[in-house]
């Protein structure tokens, strides 16, 4: 298990309901964050255009999540318990979770309202498409993050519910 996942599981305990435990978790940001930040090194014009596109993607994904009353933090931990999908505010991690701290429970929805979590490879990471009540929104995670483990935990938890 990744160091960041261990820290999320430990740090989020005060925000869990009695008998609830985190089955899987990953550090994520709204899709577009990397593009917005990385574009700055491509020159002034390229940086402005790329940054604007990345920022727009972020805002679209944040708005989609808000539509289903699921708030995204930046950065955040996306976590699955036996009962809920959680958005947990965390401090910005360095590497594999070094110096990351869990801050607060930002949002939660029952697993019965989560349609799916799909993971796709990206150039230097992965995109995670979360669909809640028919509304998809995208997150991005690092290449080493166990996003597939979060998707699998959702399927297992829903199958035993």
Q: Concise description?
A:
The chain has a seven-stranded antiparallel beta sheet. It is built from four helices and seven strands; from the N terminus they run αβααββββββα.
Polypeptide structure, described:
The structure is a single chain. This protein is an alpha+beta fold and 161 residues long. It has one domain (3-160): PH-domain like (Roll), CATH 2.30.29. It has helices spanning 3-11, 33-38, 44-67, 147-160, and strands at residues 22-30, 76-81, 84-90, 102-110, 114-122, 125-132, 135-142. The chain has a 7-stranded antiparallel β-sheet with strand order 4-3-2-1-7-6-5. The chain is globular. The chain starts with a helix and ends with a helix.
Key attributes of the depicted protein:
alpha+beta, PH-domain like, 35% strand, single chain, globular, 161 residues
Number of domains: 1
Report the CATH C-level class.
Mainly Beta
Series of H and E elements: HEHHEEEEEEH
**Helix proportion:** 25-40%
Count of extended strands: 7
Mean pLDDT: 85
The CATH level-2 architecture is identified as Roll
Structural class: alpha+beta
Strand count, sense and barrel status of the largest sheet are: 7 strands, antiparallel
Radius of gyration: 15 Å
Number of helices, where a helix is a run of at least 4 consecutive DSSP H or I residues: 4
Pick out the low-confidence regions.
none
Give the strand order, joined by hyphens, for the main sheet: 4-3-2-1-7-6-5
């Amino acid at each position: 298990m990744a160091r960041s996942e261990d820290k999320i599981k430990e740090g989020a305990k005060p925000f869990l309901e009695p008998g609830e435990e985190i089955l899987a978790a990953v550090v994520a940001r709204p899709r577009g964050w990397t593009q917005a930040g990385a574009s700055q090194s491509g020159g002034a014009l390229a940086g402005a255009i790329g940054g604007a596109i990345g920022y727009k993607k972020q805002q679209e994904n944040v708005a989609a999540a808000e539509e289903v009353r699921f708030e995204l933090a930046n950065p955040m931990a996306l976590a699955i318990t036996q009962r809920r999908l959680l958005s947990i505010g965390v401090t910005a991690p360095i590497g594999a979770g070094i110096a990351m701290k869990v801050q607060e429970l930002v949002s939660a929805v029952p697993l019965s309202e989560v349609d799916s979590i799909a993971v796709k490879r990206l150039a230097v990471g992965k995109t995670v498409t979360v669909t809640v009540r028919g509304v998809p929104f995208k997150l991005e995670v690092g290449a080493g993050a166990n996003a597939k483990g979060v998707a699998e935990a959702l399927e297992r938890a829903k199958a035993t519910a």
